[in-house]
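re: ur msg from earlier - yeah i can do the heme C complex, just paste it... oh wait u already did. ok heres what im feeding in:
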Amino acid sequence: MKKISKIALSMAALSLIVVGCATTGSSVSDESLSLRKAPVHKENVIKLQKVTYTKAAPGQAKLIPRSYNNAPPLIPHSVEGLVPITKNNNTCLGCHMPEVAKSMQATPIPPTHFMNFRPKPVILPDGKLVKQGKVVAKVNGGANEVFATPTHGKLYPGRFNCTQCHVPQANVKPLVKNTFTPGFKSKKEMHKSDLINTLNQGVNTD
Ligand code: HEC
Ligand code: HEC
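and the outut:
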């Protein structure tokens, strides 16, 4: 009991200090609360910054360096008329599937997109659970194996919706400067992913 009341007391003291700070300092107007510099209670009058995207057609765009090693590359070209991707219409494949990419001068879809990284669980008659696929890495002494099952040239369905991970770059000026530097091991990584060869890095593979 004594212990609890001590904690309660110190929490009360802490909240007094916090409230004290909030009321004694100079006041902050609601216009200056957010980066958009507009009143927070007037959502209906907010004029959003106009966002534009590149108009360069595929084949005319300049590749954008990767945000960090093995980050999904940003789409450097216009996606007008190419989105939305639907069940029956995925134009991205027509230029990026490995067998056509070279002739289209587009980056081929990498080998990681032709693999199922989820283990396929199979229940045996004795009730035992078997995970199918090749173990490519063992984490935590084998409890959380990473499985990879090749999909034999067929795009893994989890990769079908390209724009879930690859997005066009908007022409905007960031309000807050980004000080992150990716620190690539080599210049090559700025424009090429090597995830398929480095999947096991940093994990116990015996
Ligand atoms: C008409 C062919 C064509 C279509 C359709 C197309 N692309 Fe491209 N894509 C290219 C070419 C060519 C490049 C290389 C840059 C350039 O020259 O525009 C490229 C570059 C890219 C890159 C950058 C790759 C890198 O190495 O940095 C990504 C990501 C990409 N496209 C994604 C997509 C997605 C997603 C779609 C569907 C919404 C799509 N593309 C549709 C031809 C195409
Ligand atoms: C679940 C997220 C995800 C989806 C969906 C996805 N990608 Fe990727 N993509 C990535 C990541 C992450 C990388 C970088 C690491 C790697 O190679 O796997 C990548 C890399 C790439 C690259 C660069 C390859 C290289 O050699 O450097 C291309 C091109 C690409 N994806 C195209 C596509 C296209 C086209 C689709 C749709 C058919 C697609 N991706 C769907 C996440 C995704």
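cool cool. The chain has a mean pLDDT of 82. ping me if u need the other ligands too
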